[in-house]
Amino acid sequence: MQHALILINPHSRNGSEDALQEAIETLKSGGFEVSVKETESEDHLVTLIENYEHEDGVIVLAGGDGTISTGLEAIHKYQRTMAIFPLGTANDLARSLGVPEDLIAAAQVIVDGKRERISLGKVNNHFFVNVAHIGLGVDVTRELSSDSKKWFGVLAYLGAFIKAFKRNKSFKVHIKTDDWQSSSRAIHLAVGNGRYYGGGNIVDQRSTLVNGQLHLFFIKPRPWWQLLLLGPNLRDGALANERHIVRHSAQHFSIHTSKPKELEADGEFKTTTPVEFEIIPEDIEAIVGDIPTDSGDV
Asked: What is the CATH number of the domain that holds 6?
């Protein structure tokens, strides 16, 4: 009988307790022996992953994107198989993996057992799976509160964006890869490994967790009303023809800014510029649903 260890972040309880229990029962009915642990801290989560003794078992991270980000280094180091119960607000990694937000449906994905080896991003020796931000994206995260996410869900990101834009300042950035470089002023820069960020925005129409590429874009300074007009294309990742957006795909990026800028990845502070990005293709095994595929250069 296959074993599943469910690690629950008690602070990421979107969804009812009844739904969570039904999801656990779905795993048991599907042939899993199940252990459940509530995590007491980030260090406790990492320790539970490190001490997991079932080499062919599955670690189910039950929480939001921040919970998953916390466990990534241990998942990578010990090469555990990862699955997700999406209990957060944005649940962007779940979207990128094709895992439904409904917990019972997410449990059925685990029972079905489709596995893919997915890429990890790395920035200054910190792992991430979805997207890393400099500029406006960092300011948006700062404006988000636990209460606003709890009460307003994904709409909280819109309110945070409006507040963040009011105090956002442009910065000078220089980006270099093996065969390309660009220097400009920007208000926002993102580097994506996964497909989704910020509650369902698409990094790039070409981005998936299995294509072995990082996808970068940055936005040049624009008035707020022009940014609002960009909104639908930013939401859909349809950036190819936007003249105020520069984008590029590569396996490595070197990024320097005129002054040190904070960088966040998967909603957590990671480091400050200058930064070196790289991708680690097919790094960890994840249980997936209908994982989104490259939808072309739009």
From this structure: 3.40.50.10330
